[in-house]
Amino acid sequence: MPPSTEHGQPVILLADDDSFMRSIVANLVRTSLRYEVVIAASGRDAIDRLGAWSPPVSLALLDFVMPDGNGLEVARAIRSGLGRVPRDLPIAMLTGRTDFELVRAAMELDVNAYVVKPVTRETLFQRLERAWTLPFDLKPAEVYRKVEIPSPFGPERVRKPAAPVPLPTPPGPHPCEPAARSARVETRVADLTPGVILAAAVRGNNDGSIILPAHIRLDRALIARLSDLAEIGMIPPAVFVIARQEG
């Protein structure tokens, strides 16, 4: 469950420049989820409201495409310590686009969840609950400051898919241990377990953009983000992981 406030309700910052979409999502949050909502119509407005609201904002729900600072720029400000809120504030992104460059940047900024438009109550509640409850490893602020954010107003860039990343050569077994070798195993995203290592980069369905590089050890938070992307069709439903096999 989300953290309680002095008023007994969590506070969500909703930033979206589309007034119709804002009204729909805000109504869902207020009437169905019974959370308090702070409204922002632009990225700059969102950053200004983050540190000025009382009780403090406990989650930011940001649209990818906004004027005067898009949602990813707000996310970068939060993760870099420039948003006057805790750097590990849960962040969920609202998206109606399939621009994989934006998703790549969101992954680098450790966005906790993705909500595709049109928004349903069930999906919204599930994503927000996950964003609040799943811990993640917060990187140094300087790492987040260096994340490049593409313009959400430009055309979606198309990349030629690169060749599969080769599986690394595993180290030799310890003399007292039985011989083992690594295999590249295709696994459904829904069946991933914490601790597995990606054997190949996770790429976007349309243009082959790298969403998550190979050789990353997956934790619960990363698996949840990949599940969101697989569910909305941005990445394949299965990925390749490294499996140890006894020789």
What does this structure look like?
The chain is α/β, with parallel strands linked by helices and 247 residues long. The protein is built from seven helices and ten strands. The chain has helices at 19-32, 43-50, 71-79, 100-108, 121-133, 141-145, 220-231, and strands spanning 11-15, 36-40, 59-63, 91-95, 113-116, 180-188, 197-198, 202-203, 210-212, 238-246. The strands form three sheets. It has a five-stranded parallel beta sheet with strand order 2-1-3-4-5, with helices on both faces. Strands 6-10-7 form a three-stranded antiparallel beta sheet, with no helix packed on it. It has a two-stranded antiparallel sheet with strand order 8-9. Helix 1 links the parallel strand 1 (11-15) and strand 2. The radius of gyration is 19 Å and the shape is globular. 35% of the residues are buried.
Number of helices: 7
- β-strand amount: 15-25%
Query: What's the number of extended β-strand segments?
Result: 10
Largest sheet: 5 strands, parallel
Provide the gyration radius in Å: 19 Å
Straight-line distance between termini: 45 Å
Strand order of the biggest β-sheet: 2-1-3-4-5
What average pLDDT do the residues reach? 82
Q: Which sequence of SSEs, written as H and E, runs from N to C?
A: EHEHEHEHEHHEEEEHE
Fraction of residues in helix = 25-40%
Q: Which structural class do the helices and strands define? A: alpha/beta
How would you sum up the global shape? globular
Task: Indicate the low-confidence ranges by residue numbers.
Answer: 155-179
